[in-house]
Task: structure prediction
Amino acid sequence: MSRPSRSRLAFVVGSLAVASPARGHAQTQYDSVFEQFKGLTATTSRATVKDLVVRRDVMELRLDSGFAYLLTPVDGRTVGIAFIGGGSLSFNPPLPVEQYNLHRVLGDSTVNGPISAAVFLFADSTGDELQHRLTFTSSPTARSGDVNDAVGDALDYMVDGRARAVEPDLFAPILNKTTTAFFSAYVKRAHGESVMIQYDPEQAEEVALYRRGHMLDQRTETVCQFQRAEDLTNNVSITNEQPEALAVAGYDIDATIDGSYKFSARTTMRLVSRRDGQQWAPLLLYSELRVDSAFTGVGPGEPLTIYRRDHQTLMWVRFPKPLMRGDTATVRVAYHGNLITFGSAMDAFLPPWWDQRRRELTPIMDTWAFIKETETWFPRYGILQSFPISLTFHTPADLKFASIGRLVSADTVNKVMTTHWVSELPTDQVSFNIGKFEEFDIRDPRIPPVTVHINTEAHRAIAQLLPHMRQPEEQVGADVANSLAFFTKVFGPPLFHQYYATEIPYFHGQAFPGMIHLSWWTFMGLSRAGAEEIFRAHEMAHQWWGIGVEPASYRDAWLSEGFAEFGGLWYMQMIRHDNDKYLKRLKQSREEIRRQRDKAAPIGLGWRAAESWKGNYALTTYQKGAWVLQMLRNMLLDTRTMGEERFEAMMHDFYATYRGKRATTLDFQRVVERHVGQPMDWFFNEWVYSTDVPTYTFAWKANQDSTGHGYTAHVRVRQTDVPSKFGMYVPLLIKFDQGEALIRMLVVGPSSEAVVHLPAEPKQMELNPLESVLAEVKTEGWD
Result:
């Protein structure tokens, strides 16, 4: 299950406002600072601009002639300057995938051209720099409607007035009265769409270009994003970046769930400051959870001021005094709310074509508990930092419960079970499940112990409506155990000492360390096409890909979802011994990928693909990501023995190298190169960083050779729908009266030909058998 990009976090999590226990000076301070920022407007302080250049990384703004206006101060500080006049913009992304996406979205691989306005909003030295280079004087008639229109457009990217939210990475230094490298430039282009260019030191990829600036309705799209030039030049891996102002040192959570599924908790988090002056910090907490109290420090501690709007996820906390670099802050929050529900909620999740069954099914669904949020059910700083965590849960003894981590203790007193769990490795994925389950333990010498939680009461009732349904614990338990064993063989040993597979009343699955959530639908056993085996194994494969090896950034999401999707397909093929179903699933996704290729986003954009290509993120990240592995699998296939030892060795190598670590796509590419034995930039550029899908038109002829003992075959492949230098090794299956042979042909450019010497007359030739390359194949006569 994919998470939203850390970039533009405010647009994802929503908004802010006041909630108890926020009172007094800090609350007034936040309101005051917010109102001043929201109300930014041009002052009468104006400067004449002539031949001024503003540079930030790859952005160059030439302000040829016009006027610059100081914007109204915020908390006594200049945070904005606007320019109206003539000039030009140059923005040249350094990465091919970003050039590709820029061309896909805005029609060119660079942004160059005249501008009519620019608005700078910043927490860096821009204000001092421009006031030093320009002479601002007060002019009562200086303000104009054009400049304030531009300022308003810039604020659309940063401010949600209704929710009282400001982009946190800009607002935090304003609240903290600190200076960071944050800089943004809203640029009104004379021709074409206006854009926002941003340099944000809180991001691992600091430089970004945005379009469609509307924080209020979350329409902003990240057109380009990449590391700063210095890091790209020095090949700084994103896995080594630590851009956030605070580091998460650990969590302790003590939660209570009663017999009516009412939820309350006390969470203690430890934060370490990486910079001086950190007094305000943004946290995330599920919008339907209400804060009861907040303290900092040990013992009784000091009250901690928070600022949060009702029914919003983002909240600000204010420490009693600013944190200096290396200081540790302990934040203790008590909260409760509507995290878990049951019963009538299921009605919203039944498929429309089951309308006639709703009345019969809804009472059955009353036996399920719906956990409405699995990511921000406890207060978090950011969503990507991993941390050690200790969890204590108090739950009704008659309900089954599972969580991540190692179960350290379990005790029952007065019909309340108290369980204590400790994470085996730092993680950023923490959840649990609870319900009226029956527990099925699987003990298999090939794998660690597995416990399956199934709502058998509900399934017995459903079986009366669907009498052909098989025993759910048998079919699901078998796939959970067998996929765990299969992936252990083909990828490497699993990370954890105990696994839970637990049923949820939703139509999706989700994986956590040592635990997978499986949709109630997969327990129905209705599909015979292999879809259920793929689904169950997909979630189990995440124990290797996504958890065992964690994607380093949003753009590496396919290392989790694409790998897990391929793992599910591969498992289904092996467990069913059914090549036809495996190849049919690949063919179906190939056809859809081809249909969407003209508007598709590259795999290398990760979560960002969902911003401009609504509804098809999974087609790229999951399905095309699986296709990349399918192509590598066939590229490494031993064409004489059909053995897959090289591919399995490559997957073992990648997993062993990055087990328990973060990995990038480039890290995977380097492993692939070790096993293929050649540079693979061409492959990743074609299949990960662009969206082209070739069409091959195949022709062949064969004649007996001059010796009379063999045949010479001439083969030709015309390639279309891709750039002229696009190349790929494509298998060719040659069938004889007795036996067959598999060879590979390098197809590059508009047309490729080869001559093949054969020992016997070929009866049939098939280009691209076994769905080896993501391509459409046609045939034609030789002439």
In short: Residues 472-490 form the longest helix (19 residues). Confidence is low (pLDDT under 50) at residues 1-24. The radius of gyration is 29 Å.
